[in-house]
Every structure is written in C-alpha cells, then in structure tokens.
Design brief:
Blueprint lengths: L1 H9 L8 H22 L1 E5 L13 E6 L19 H4 L26 E5 L13 E8 L4 E5 L2 E4 L2 E2 L7 E8 L4 H9 L14 E3 L6 E8 H8 L4 E5 L32 E5 L6 E3 L5 H11 L5 E4 L2 E4 L2 E2 L2 E3 L4 E5 L9 H4 L2 E2 L3 E11 L17 E2 L2
Length: 382
C-alpha cells in the first residue's frame, strides 16, 4: 500500500511555474548569456574622445572582438565600486580577490596597424581588468624597433605601412577669421569638440601673433586649405613635452631616465619594443625603458628605482629576461592622442580585443534630424 502510494505520488506532475518565476528565470538566463558573450566573444564600446579621428569619430559605437586575440579570464571576479569599499571594510582594490589570468587561444595575434582595445597601463592603483579601456592603433609589435621621423613612422629602419585616416594639428593663418572661413572649416569636416557648435574658435599663433585657427585634419584637407587664397600659412605648431622613456613611470612616480632622449611627438626613437624571452643588459642609458616592465607588469618583488637604475632588493639589476610580449600604440590623431609616446608599452596581458566595425554613429554637434551618421553604419574598421 505504501509502495503504491509512493509510485502514484512520484508520477504527480509538478506545479507549473508562475509568470513571475518564468520572467525571473528568463532575465537570469539573459544576463548570464550576455555576460558570457561579453567576456568571451564581443563587446560594444563608444568613442568619447577624438584621439583616433578620422578613422574613428566621437560618437562612434563599435563592436570589439575578443575572439581575435583570445578572451582572457577575469582577474577580479568580484568587482566592487570604490564607493562601496568602506562599507565592506576594504582599504584598496588590493584587498579584493585577484586571480591569475589566462588567455584562451585566439585565431590571430596582434598585428601592426590593428585597432586595439586594451586596459590603460598606468592606472596601477587598480587591477588590470578594472582599469579604463583605451582604443589605439598598434604601430609596432614585439621585436620591432620604432622610430618617428618628421611625423613618419619607421619600423626596423624602413618606412612603416600607413593605415587609417591619420590627421595632424596645424595653425591655419588667415587674414580675417570670419564666418566664411568657419563655413569652409565645417564643409571640410574640421571639428573642435570643445566648442558648442563644433567649429574651431579663432585664435592667434603664439609664435607669430598672427590670427587664424588651430585645426586638426587629414593631410588631404590640409592640402585643400593650402590652395585657398584666404589662407596665408598652414604650419605644424611645435609641441614640447616630456615623453616616455624620459618619464619612466607616467603619473605614478618620479622615475626619470638618467640619460634623457628629449624625444618629441613627431621626432621619436629609435625605441626597441620588448619581446618575450629577450634578455636585456640594463644600463643607465636604457633602464628607464624597462622600469615599468620589471617593477609593475611582470610582478617582480623588491623592485625600486635609484640613481637612474632598476634595483632589486637593494642591488642594481644589470640583466633581465622579458616574460611577455609588448606593443606600441598610437592614436591616428597624432598630435591629440595620449598614447605610448607618453606612457610606454602595452603588455600582452592588457590586450582586450580588436575593433572590427562601427554599428552606430551619432554626431554630437548635429541637429536632431542629422544626428545619425548613416554612412558610417556597419562600416569595417581598418
């Protein structure tokens, strides 16, 4: 009798799910699936700054493939905002659980001229996968020797291949900076995103005191303006700033090269890009190039900087073997991009993925009827 009752009860159909439970299960599944896809396959990004113009425009929305270079496992599975740290008793992000990272195989490696998304290298207060994402073009890969001569990239003593729609900054001197000139700037696609209407504001050249406009544009647009009768001169301003490796540790310490190079944005290098397995003889002349690699990216202990040399446990380090590949990144807007010229190499374990195409583009300076840049939708990125 008891056996019969057991069998009968076990065959009783389960109570159907309520609508609320069905919705909850569907939402949980959708979130889990979206998280898995975002981590392992593709992720959407937007372009907030003009550092990649004209290849990528402010307001472009991109799909970035993690499959190209291989998805990387999260370093911090539990990501907690800074505002919640005190509540949980965390003094810093170093108190979070941090796991070793592993990159799954991809179907390609980072190539020269790839447009790459990566974790910004100089936010050392955060784990790598919680840092700001940047997007730049890979100019040189591990093992290359990079040089910039008068704005032209050279790789391994040969002119480097040019990809994308590069642009530079010029001062365009004009007799009268009136509305007609502004209209010409607009018609040629010259934009200043700091201005409410997007049109560059009239200024003066600090070197000459002459009136005109600071503009950023491709070489073809610069050539157009050179031929216009109202343009008196079109010159590249002189940019003077301290760059890597003279600044050995961007934003993080006072480490500086003992032998300054005085490189500038358009005259830079030659600089070797470190490659996995390469053994470096460290001297005061080159130690600043490798300081962040030894001290930060490759997780060595007891590393300090003293008297222009890397020290480990209080003794000068004279030889070092590189543990992973590195890359040199630059923005296509060459005079308006904070990139490897400022903060140095991008480690391989900071690489997120390859930008593959623009799926939407919204012009922040256009009126409502012209907000969407229809000609950029679903355009591949090269």
């Amino acid at each position: 009798m008891n056996l019969f009752r057991f069998k009968r009860d076990s065959a009783t159909p389960q109570k159907p799910k309520s609508k609320a439970r069905e919705w909850r299960d569907a939402v949980v599944f959708a979130i889990a699936a979206a998280t898995l896809i975002r981590w392992s396959a593709v992720e959407a990004y937007t372009i907030p700054t003009p550092s990649m113009e004209h290849t990528l425009l402010v307001g472009d929305y991109l799909f970035v493939s993690r499959l190209h270079y291989g998805p990387i496992t999260p370093q911090t599975p539990l990501q907690i905002p800074l505002t919640h740290q005190k509540v949980l008793g965390l003094k810093s992000y170093s108190d979070l659980i941090q796991l070793p990272t592993y990159r799954f195989p991809g179907f390609s490696s980072v190539q020269r001229n790839d447009v790459v998304v990566f974790h910004v290298p100089h936010e050392q207060q955060l784990p790598a996968d919680m840092r700001t994402h940047l997007i730049k073009r890979c100019i040189a890969v591990a093992g290359d020797t990079l040089e910039i001569r008068n704005g032209q990239v050279w790789l391994n003593r040969q002119p480097g291949p040019v990809a994308g729609q590069l642009q530079n900054t010029y001062f365009m001197e004009v007799e009268t900076p009136d509305d007609a000139v502004r209209q010409a700037l607009r018609s040629q696609g010259v934009v200043d995103y700091d201005e409410p209407d997007g049109i560059p504001r009239a200024s003066t050249n600090p070197a000459t005191g002459k009136p005109g406009f600071f503009i950023s544009c491709p070489a073809s647009v610069a050539e157009y303006f050179r031929q216009q009768p109202y343009v008196k001169a079109l010159t590249v301003p002189k940019f003077q700033t301290d760059l890597f490796p003279d600044v050995a540790d961007f934003h993080n310490s006072g480490a500086a090269s003992a032998v300054p190079h005085h490189w500038q944005l358009d005259t830079y290098g030659p600089l070797p890009v470190p490659k996995k397995g390469q053994t470096i003889a460290l001297t005061p002349a080159n130690a600043a190039i490798y300081y962040k690699i030894v001290a930060q990216y490759e997780h060595n202990t007891g590393i300090t900087w003293k008297d222009g040399m890397i020290q480990q446990n209080g003794r000068p380090l004279t030889r070092y073997t590189i543990k992973q590949n590195y890359y040199f990144m630059m923005g296509d807007n060459r005079h308006n991009s904070e990139d490897s010229r400022f903060w140095g190499f991008v480690p391989e374990d900071h690489i997120v993925g390859k930008a593959v195409f623009v799926w939407l583009s919204i012009d922040p300076n256009a009126d409502f009827l012209h907000k969407i840049r229809w000609d950029r939708l679903f355009q591949p990125i090269s």
